[in-house]
Design goal:
Largest sheet of chain B: 6 strands, mixed
Helix content of chain A: 40-55%
Distance between the termini of chain B: 41 Å
Oligomer: heterodimer
Largest sheet of chain A: 11 strands, mixed
Strand content of chain B: 15-25%
Strand order of the largest sheet of chain B: 6-7-8-3-9-10
Number of strands of chain A: 11
Order of helices and strands of chain A: HHEHHEEEHEEHEEEHEHEHHHHHH
Order of helices and strands of chain B: EEEHEEHEHHHEHEEE
CATH architecture of chain B: 3-Layer(aba) Sandwich
CATH topology of chain B: Rossmann fold
CATH superfamily of chain B: P-loop containing nucleotide triphosphate hydrolases
Strand content of chain A: 5-15%
Helix content of chain B: 25-40%
Shape of chain A: elongated
């Protein structure tokens, strides 16, 4: 059996080498499919990893509450593509914050109210500048560092703001902008602190702190016609052991507040990363769908070429059968050939996928991740395609009547 | 056959092979009774369409949709699975075809080694055996030629080497000289004759009456039935098969070796 297998591989190599152009073109379909899958998976794994690492580095005692019901299904992620940070209407309220703060073992609570609006200093800022209204607790929970000045403090008189270093450079031309006035939605705020550069636009707060304006929650409400619009509540428990209990308690309390409607989601650990990379999930989903189409097309290509190959070698099949090949010998010979095509395409695709992922990642702030899941996916996908689309031609080859096959001309 | 020392290799009883259905139905083989002993060299003659090749295909287990009885080595093939039949083809039967049927993608030695693959031999063992076989056919220096670089006679010798490489009990040759000129034909026949002398059982279909001179027994067929069955050369261990049908006439070719080519 082993000898036969080795021989089949030898035959497959010979046959593929003898029609190099044809085989390469056939593999191309699989290559493109596997390359796109690899790219997507490597990049989205990279994006998730960043957030997971952040959560881990914060000590693992963080829970995040977001409005909207939980979606376990990744397909839901595709259906509702989050647009920036704007959730339509938040189900989280100031009452919720107050009740969470009263829960035992909760160390700190920080609501995040993310507004859209124009920001200007000396020059106009980007229209996409995130305006984050929050409380001083955020500094502690999310481990935010201030490079200059101080963090938010509601006790200070007047409207104050802390801004990201990149924003400072963009609108003031310098990262030394303390004391200057920044206009948020037309209202003047005095800058009291500059954040330390994080280079981390992807994080579980869904705010690019390098480019953000942080203001007090009260000011945020004023900018929003007096209403709170809370997109996220970060909760820190006293220690990791208490986190589970705290989450249960939060769920209970919020359900009570929300008349038993589960219109919120409490996330902890790796779960936090998922909605953050929701856009990636969506993009990945769409791309995987496209990749799947290209794989099917590639598979059909393999089937096509295998059928041609079987037809071309009808006589050889007849000879082999006359000389003692069993049907399964013939099936494995052709199946291994189609597998060689698909796995060849898969390996090339895997390599190209990573090349592409690294090329793309030069425009992004995170790197693709190597893990065995991606390699395994690429391999399994190619195996499945090769088997699926190679089986029919192989069975057809084996079913050929040796007498008729021998009569056919070369 | 009770008094034969060894049981017959092949016994056919009322063998029929039908093609087509309904109105188009006809019997390519229409009740063949035949017993073949080990070591016979049988030439099957007859006009086109008389069922010679069909008979050979049936004997070679390429076609098992038959009626009647076919016993190979004392065992009926009726209940053999396709896999067992393939194994018998691999181990007991060697085919030689009119059109050589070498695999054009493989070089000479790989072609000869082809049947050994399905016997499960390692590559090295295959190559060794094939090489020995080729040398015995004086093709040792052609091992790495491709089939299309050989003459017809050489190709057929390669094909015979391939048929013999797994020491088959029976060699089935379907017009082995049909595509060769007369000189090459006689070389091939000489080879087959030598094999016969070494004790191989050979069943050959031919159109050429001259070639029957090499055979020990000549069968002519007509319309799917055996017309004549003539023993030409005495075989040491042979007793007459149990049907001395109508041994009317020797085929024309019995003018023995008169026509042996220069």
């Amino acid at each position: 059996m082993k000898i036969l297998f080795a021989n089949h591989i030898h035959i497959a190599r010979q046959s593929i080498a003898s029609s190099r152009m044809r085989s390469t073109l056939t593999m191309l379909g699989i290559t493109i499919g596997v390359a796109s899958i690899t790219t997507i998976l490597a990049l989205s794994a990279g994006a998730s990893k960043i957030v997971v690492d952040q959560v881990d580095s914060l000590g693992g005692n963080i829970a995040v509450i977001r409005p909207g019901a939980n979606s376990d299904n990744t397909l839901d992620g595709i259906a509702k593509i989050p647009i920036g940070q704007q959730y339509a209407a938040s189900s989280l309220s100031d009452v919720d914050i107050a009740s969470i703060e009263r829960i035992e073992h909760v160390k700190a609570v920080a609501p995040l109210m993310i507004l859209g609006g124009s920001v200007s200093g000396v020059t106009e800022g980007s229209a996409h500048t995130p305006i984050l209204a929050t409380t001083p607790n955020l500094e502690q929970i999310s481990d935010i560092e201030v490079s200059d000045g101080q963090f938010l403090d509601p006790e200070l008189n007047g409207a104050t703001a802390v801004i990201g270093p990149q924003l400072s450079i963009d609108i003031f031309g310098t990262d030394q902008s303390i004391g200057k006035t920044i206009k948020v939605k037309g209202q003047p705020f005095t800058i009291i602190g500059i954040l330390k550069r994080t280079n981390n636009p992807i994080n579980y707060n869904t705010v690019d702190f390098d480019n953000a304006v942080l203001i007090n929650l009260a000011n945020g409400r004023e900018l929003n016609q007096g209403a709170s619009q809370i997109q996220q509540i970060n909760v820190q428990s006293e220690s990791v052991e208490y986190l589970g209990g705290v989450i249960t308690e939060i769920n209970k309390t919020l359900l009570k507040n929300h008349f038993n409607q589960a219109d919120f989601t409490v996330l902890s650990g790796d779960e936090i990363a998922q909605p953050t990379s929701g856009l990636f999930t969506a993009l990945a989903g769409v791309s995987v769908a496209i990749a799947a189409i290209s794989l099917v097309v590639g598979g059909v290509g393999i089937m096509n070429i295998m059928l041609v190959s079987v037809a071309e070698r009808t006589r050889e099949i007849g000879i082999r059968k006359a000389l003692g090949a069993t049907n399964s010998d013939i099936i494995s010979q052709f199946l291994i050939e189609s597998l060689a095509l698909s796995i060849g395409g898969g390996i090339t695709g895997y390599i190209f996928g990573y090349i592409l992922a690294f090329a793309i990642s030069t425009f992004l702030t995170f790197d693709p991740v190597f893990n065995w899941e991606i390699a395994g996916t690429a391999l399994i996908v190619s195996l499945v395609i090769g088997t699926l689309f190679g089986l029919y031609p192989a069975i057809r080859a084996a079913k050929k009547d040796p007498i008729a096959a021998l009569r056919q001309y070369d | 056959m009770s008094d034969t020392k060894t049981p017959p290799v092949i016994v056919l009883k009322q063998l029929k092979k039908r093609f087509g259905i309904g109105d188009a139905e006809h019997y390519a083989l229409d009740g063949i009774n035949l017993t073949i002993q080990k070591g016979e060299f049988i030439a099957i003659m007859g006009p086109s369409g008389c069922g010679k090749t069909t008979l050979l295909n049936v004997l070679g287990l390429l076609d098992s949709h038959i009626e009647g009885e076919y016993e190979l080595d004392g065992k009926s093939i009726a209940y053999l699975s396709a896999k067992r039949q393939a194994r018998i083809r691999s181990q007991q039967i060697g085919f030689v075809f009119q059109s050589f049927n070498l695999v054009s993608r493989l070089n000479v030695i790989d072609n000869v080694a082809l049947p050994l693959i399905y016997k499960g031999m390692t590559k090295l063992a295959r190559q060794k055996k094939a090489s020995t076989m080729l040398r015995s056919f004086h093709l040792g220096e052609r091992e790495f030629y491709m089939p299309n670089q050989l003459s017809g006679g050489q190709m057929q010798r390669v094909a015979i080497a391939r048929a013999l490489v797994n020491d088959p009990a029976i060699i089935l040759a379907d017009e082995p000289t049909g595509n060769l000129d007369s000189r090459a034909s006689h070389i091939i026949m000489q080879e087959l004759s030598d094999l016969h002398k070494q004790g191989n059982t050979i069943i050959m279909v031919t159109h050429n009456p001259d070639l029957t001179t090499y055979a020990s027994r000549v069968i002519t067929m007509l319309d799917g039935q055996i017309d004549t069955d003539t023993f030409r050369l005495p075989l040491q261990s042979r007793t007459s098969t149990k049907k001395p049908l109508n041994i009317v006439k020797k085929p024309k070719a019995s003018t023995t070796k008169k026509k042996d080519k220069k």
